Amino acid sequence: MIRHENWPMLLDAFIEANRYRKFERGHFDCALFAGLAIEAITDAKLVHDYVGLYTSKRAAFALLKKRGMNNLSDVAINHLGEPLASVNFASRGDVVVVEYEGEFALAVIDLTGRRAVTTGKDGLIFFERQYWLKAWGV
């Protein structure tokens, strides 16, 4: 997977275009957000065979299980390979798993390189590095 030459502008435009878009499982959840962000900066097609196939957390994990994955880390490994040795090696445009209020989510590191962004109830939410658990290069 190769990033477009102007990937920073594309990532910024993607984040801004979705800043106030609300979480919708199966259409705009954390995994789909991360996949769509990757598609925006690389043209890789990662999420189209997931969109609209589930509407609950239980159904999402049943779909993953059916496809040989057990959790969000497995999703990232399936599409991006093994995680980086440390989240400290992650940089702008890379994918991370974050933990927030007992939940796990896939997020994309924004252009500051210090925050990861993902979907939230009322729009995108940002997480500082202390919430990053694992990271994958894009």
In words, what does this structure look like?
With 138 residues, the protein is of the alpha+beta class. It is built from four helices and five strands; from the N terminus they run H-H-H-H-E-E-E-E-E. The chain has helices at 7-18, 30-42, 57-66, 72-80; strands spanning 95-100, 103-109, 115-118, 125-128, 132-136. A five-stranded antiparallel β-sheet has the order 4-3-2-1-5, with helices on one face. Helix 1 (7-18) packs antiparallel against helix 2.
Search tags:
138 residues; alpha+beta; five-stranded antiparallel beta sheet; 4 helices; 19% strand; globular
Overall pLDDT = 96
- How much β-strand is present in the residues? 15-25%
Strand line-up of the largest beta sheet: 4-3-2-1-5
Contiguous runs where pLDDT drops below 50 for at least 5 residues: none
Count of DSSP-assigned helices:
4
How many E-type strands?
5
Span between termini: 7 Å
Write the layout of secondary structure elements.
Layout: H1 7-18, H2 30-42, H3 57-66, H4 72-80, E1 95-100, E2 103-109, E3 115-118, E4 125-128, E5 132-136
Provide a compact summary of the structure.
The protein has 138 residues and is of the alpha+beta class. The chain has helices at 7-18, 30-42, 57-66, 72-80; strands at 95-100, 103-109, 115-118, 125-128, 132-136. It is built from 4 helices and 5 strands.
